[in-house]
Each structure stands twice: as structure tokens, then as C-alpha cells.
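call fold(seq) -> C-alpha cells
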Amino acid sequence: MSEVKDRILAATRATVLAEGYAALSMRKVAASAGVPLSQIHYHFGSKEQLVLATLLAEDARLLHRQQALYAGDEPLSVQWRRACDYLDEDVESGYVRILHELTAAGWSNDSVKAELLRLLEGWREVLTEGFGSAAGRGVDFGPLTVEQVVALVAAAFIGAESMILTGQESAGMPVRAALRAVGDVIEAAEIRAATEVPS
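ret:
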């Protein structure tokens, strides 16, 4: 990627985090990046494509990180806790904010929605592979299929992200602590499974 494109993407990221997607303008990004407005039009074409490119650049790295997590043979409880660590990192880095800003934009913009669905499909595939691998190692999900588990996990994390971003996390609504406690539930199930005597 060219140095100019890198500067534009960095400026876009900073502007979205500071002001939100709705207030973002290509003119503001150009001024922040120190480039002519024509360069943004040349490289990205539209505001939507500019922010999508910003998100996708970061998403590719995070998806690779998640693939590496679930590719290992660590217990699922360990992987779950690390996923909770990653949530903390992604909230802090601003990735979650940009993802949710674009999700809101996708409600009324079909091209943004299509790109987001493609992006989220990559995460679904990684989770399906990871939880499928756990099932292959003997993790029992009870009556739930791997696909159903993945749907619930995705809903839990996306919902948690939304609650964190909107300030709902509190002592009375301990969102991240609740997610981490699921790791304890998984570990207890792993211990029971390891100590059960076959009949």
C-alpha cells in the first residue's frame, strides 16, 4: 500500500473515532492526512468505500489472529478467555467502534451492508472451524449444533460490543465479566468430562 493511502486510512480511522461515521467528511480526512481531496476520490471513490477500506485493513489482521487462536489444541476454556482478552484489545484500539459505526450505516446503505456481511462471514467461518474442532476433541455442546453455538457466540460478543459502546456496562450490567464467566462454565464442563468414568 502506498504511503499516501496509509496516511488517508490513518486519518479516516482517527476521524471516525473522534467524531463518528455520520460526521465524517472526505474533506476533513484530506485535511487531517495532509493530502488533496482528489487523492481520496482517486484511491477510494466514496466515503463508504473509504471507511470500509479502513475497517477491512484492520479486520484482515484480526481475523488472522482469531484463526491462529482456534487452530491450536488448547482447551476451549483457554481459547474463550483469550477471545475475551481480544475483545478488550479491540474495544481499546477502536476497531469495535468503527465496526459498529459501519453496521449502523449498513442499515440504510446496501453496498455497505453487503461488504459487512462478507466481512462477518469470514468471522463465522473461523468460529465454525474453531468450535467444530472443539467438538472433535470431545467438547459436548448438548443439544446445540456447532452452527447454533456459533450463532450464540457471535450474538453474545456483538451484543456485548454494542452494550460497551453505548455505556451500558456497569456494576449492575457486568458485560465483560459475564463473558469471562462463560470460560469458567466451559472449564467446569471440561473437568467433568475428563473425570467421568465410562459406563
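The domain at 1-45 is CATH 1.10.10.60 (Arc Repressor Mutant, subunit A).
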